[in-house]
Specification:
The chain contains 9 helices and 12 strands. By secondary structure, it is α/β, with parallel strands linked by helices. It has one domain (about 1-240): TIM Barrel (Alpha-Beta Barrel), CATH 3.20.20.70. It has an 8-stranded parallel β-barrel, surrounded by 6 helices. It starts with a strand and ends in a 10-residue tail after the last helix.
């Protein structure tokens, strides 16, 4: 779904945080405390059931899937990924890319685009290797942060600040970027990334910018659009009904 706002159009991309085969509610990146989702949309934590609810009740079919078992323990949920692609859901997926082979395997399953997250990316050399193997917009770079701090080995990047890492990724050839601060996820306080998004947009007019974490309502989405964001990742505000209150239980 694309919302038409006063100054821009912005896409809403629902999030599935997947752990141990179930969709969980992410809060501030504290993954040890994640629990199966409770939702007004559907009485289930099954990923395919929730994806169907996003599509059929909200008209949101493109999905961002964070495979937390793959990110943490290198155990991708291949069966679930295949089931979602077989059902026709365009997936933007972070499955803990640490090499080109996994990226290719995901694309062979029919995934629309793969995410290389800063959390599991060893540095710019691997990013360039991924870009050589996966041309165009099928590769998305995620600038992962925790309370404003990049989730990476600072020594691996020429400029380890968030803005500096963004510049390095864009110079390498990245065309799509997620700017995500895990401290904002599930907080209901609004996305803490908008100033950084505004800085990136001021330097790069063409790059596709995606952000999320803490989105509460359409006011937050409007603020993201004003910061130059093209799409927002949303989970809690869809499940609790605050973004689309007209959709009843």
């Amino acid at each position: 779904m694309t919302l038409e706002l006063t100054s821009a159009a912005i896409e809403i991309i629902p999030v599935l945080d997947l752990m141990h085969g179930q969709v969980v509610r992410g809060v501030a990146g504290q993954r040890e405390s994640y629990r199966p989702i409770s939702s007004r949309l559907v009485d289930s934590a099954d990923p395919l059931t929730i994806a169907d609810a996003f599509a059929n009740r909200l008209g949101l079919k493109r999905i961002y899937l964070a495979d937390l078992d793959a990110i943490r323990d290198e155990r991708p949920a291949w069966t679930t990924i295949q089931a979602l692609t077989d059902a026709g859901f365009p997936l933007l997926i972070d499955a803990g890319l640490r090499d080109v082979a996994r990226a290719r395997a995901l694309l062979e399953l029919g995934v629309e685009s793969v995410v290389t997250g800063l959390e599991t990316l060893t540095g710019p050399d691997l990013l360039r290797e991924l870009l050589e193997a996966i041309p165009g917009k099928q590769l998305v770079f995620s600038l992962d942060m925790q309370a404003g701090r990049p989730m990476t080995d600072a020594d691996a990047w020429p400029d380890p600040t968030p803005a500096g890492i963004a510049e390095t990724a864009i110079e390498a050839g990245i065309e799509r970027m997620i700017v995500l601060d895990l401290a904002g996820v599930g907080s209901g306080k609004g996305p803490p990334t908008l100033e950084l998004c505004r800085q990136i947009r001021s330097r790069h007019e063409v790059i596709e910018l995606i952000t999320g974490g803490g989105i509460r309502d359409q006011h937050d989405i409007s603020a993201a659009a004003d910061a130059g964001v093209d799409a927002v990742l949303v989970a809690s505000a869809l499940h609790d009904g605050s973004l689309f209150p007209e959709v009843q239980d």
